[in-house]
Design brief:
The protein is of the alpha/beta class. The protein folds into 3 domains: 91 residues, Arc Repressor Mutant, subunit A (Orthogonal Bundle); 114 residues, Aspartate Aminotransferase, domain 1 (Alpha-Beta Complex), CATH 3.90.1150.10; 242 residues, 3-Layer(aba) Sandwich (Aspartate Aminotransferase, domain 2). It has 14 helices and 18 strands. Helix 7 links the parallel strand 7 and strand 8. It is globular and about 75 Å long. The protein binds pyridoxal-5'-phosphate. Pyridoxal-5'-phosphate (PLP) binds next to helix 6.
């Protein structure tokens, strides 16, 4: 098959033309451009490559590109500005054809809460770390991994977590896993079908993982002080003995509140009195903006708390690297579950991460990222004040997402769909409850993966959508 791929100066524009199929090249080019605009790969207002440059990249005549641009201009996908070039039209102003009924699969203004700034992945530092790893790693590093994780990484993590989060960490009690997600799976397996209290609202994906690993889940309500730990006794009396409690004390997921200090103490006391386990998901605690972070709870009771961490917010979810710091009594069961699951995480990436931490590049990246996200958080607050005057933003002190209370309940599905038609991705808080609230006044908005102007434009569009609903 002779497929040619072309990129040109200007926007990132990857188009495939396949000369082996019967569809004419001009039609293929038009399809490719339409798809790029609809999916948001080519966002509104971006300038297209000059026709001559694109023709040369694709190995086609300039006439063909001119004609394809002309067709999309006529359809309203593109606009021409005399002397300045051809641009992607504003989605709102696009013709009926451009507003084809299916919303783009990835909105241009996507407030998805799970992402750090994906464009800010420290590619060069990671490349250096990988190169050093491949150069220096002994041959044995290419054998089957240690199911607990590479010793170099466990050592680096122990030092980092002690220093930054006050975790009582010993390389011998750390297990590296494929993201926090796998950590929860392994823990549920190690608890052997035990009863687990989870924050409600919480992350549905994690509840599904825990349930799949046979945990019996009970809902622990959340209010302005975080998880309502005073209810644990009543919950136990009603539902049966609770073996473990999963909390996000630094920045509750998704409401964004911190677990109030008296509740932290009460939760540890509950664990002590009931031989219970606390699972501390510290997923985004590296980002605290307005005051020094509280240390991890694990630092106060290492024999009763499992500490869960991840690089998904500090580097990228794609790396799939996370870790558990375990009370010794759980270690063997978790390591055995990890061995049976996948024999251990990929060693080369683990060694690269160890290298990144040991070289200081990880800390430098975190410092820079914190500044960047603080500015984005502030942009969200300003945009909400400007375009959603009845709304209130909460959960701002830390992390990479906030909750916007709209001031009136809305149908989450209707809002998501209407926003998607304007290329805005929003995430209703109501879907984070165990009993889904189809109508609710909260939205969970991630701000880390959008630049300030995109935050402003996304919230402006959201304001317009809400007015119309
Ligand atoms: C509450 C919570 N915990 C943990 C994670 C990280 O999960 P993982 O390491 O599997 O990507 C996330 C990611 O969005 C999260 O929201």
């Amino acid at each position: 098959m002779s497929t040619e791929t072309g990129t040109s100066s200007g926007p990132e524009l990857l188009l495939d033309l396949n000369r082996d199929v019967r569809r004419p090249l001009r039609a293929q080019l038009e399809d490719g451009l339409r798809e790029a605009v609809r999916s948001g790969r080519l966002p509104a207002h971006i300038r297209l490559p000059a026709t001559r440059a694109l023709a040369s990249d694709l190995g086609v005549s300039r006439r063909l590109v001119v004609d394809a641009y002309g067709q999309l201009l006529a359809e309203g996908y593109l606009v021409a500005r005399r002397g300045a070039g051809t641009f992607v039209a504003d989605a709102a102003g696009a013709s009926a054809a451009a507003a084809a009924e299916t919303p783009p699969s990835v909105p241009t203004f996507d407030f998805f809460p799970g992402f750090p700034d994906l464009a800010n992945f420290p590619r060069n530092a990671w490349l250096r770390a990988l190169r050093a790893t491949l150069r220096d790693a002994p041959d044995r590093a290419f054998g089957y991994p240690d199911p607990r994780g590479a010793l170099e990484l466990r050592r680096a993590l122990a030092g980092h977590l002690r220093r930054v989060r006050g975790v009582v960490a010993d390389p011998e009690t750390i297990v590296v896993c494929s993201g926090a997600a796998q950590g929860f799976f392994l823990l549920a397996r190690a608890l052997g079908g035990g009863r687990l209290a989870v924050e409600d609202p919480g992350l549905p994906a994690h509840r599904a993982i825990l349930a799949e690993a046979s945990a019996q889940l009970v809902a622990l309500p959340v209010d302005e002080g975080g998880a309502c730990v005073a209810e644990l006794d009543a919950l136990s009396a009603r539902e049966g003995t609770i073996d473990a409690v999963l909390v996000t004390p630094a920045h509750q997921s998704p409401t964004g509140v911190a677990l109030a200090p008296p509740r932290r103490a009460a939760l540890l006391a509950w664990a002590g009195e009931n031989e219970g386990l606390v699972i501390e998901d510290d997923y985004d605690a590296e980002y605290r903006y307005d005051r020094a972070p509280l240390g991890a709870m694990q630092g106060l009771a290492a024999d009763r708390v499992v500490y869960v961490g991840t690089v998904s917010k500090t580097l990228a979810p794609a790396l799939r690297l996370g870790w558990l710091v375990l009370p010794p009594r759980l270690l063997e069961r978790v390591v055995s579950a990890k061995l049976l699951a996948d024999h251990g995480c990929p060693t080369i990436d683990q060694l690269a991460l160890a290298q990144l931490i040991d070289s200081g590049a990880y800390d430098r990246h975190l410092r820079q990222a914190r500044r960047r996200y603080r500015a984005r958080r502030d942009a969200l607050v300003h945009a909400v004040a400007r375009h959603l005057p009845n709304a209130r933003v909460t959960g701002l002190a830390a992390g990479l997402h906030a909750v916007v209370r709209l001031g009136r309940p809305v149908d989450g599905m209707a809002l998501m769909q209407a926003a998607a038609r304007q290329s805005v991705g929003v995430y209703p808080l109501g879907y984070a409850y165990m009993d889904v609230r189809a109508v609710d006044d909260g939205l969970v908005l991630g701000y880390a993966n959008l630049a300030e102007p995109a935050i402003e434009e996304g919230i402006r569009r959201l304001g317009a959508v809400l007015e119309e609903l």
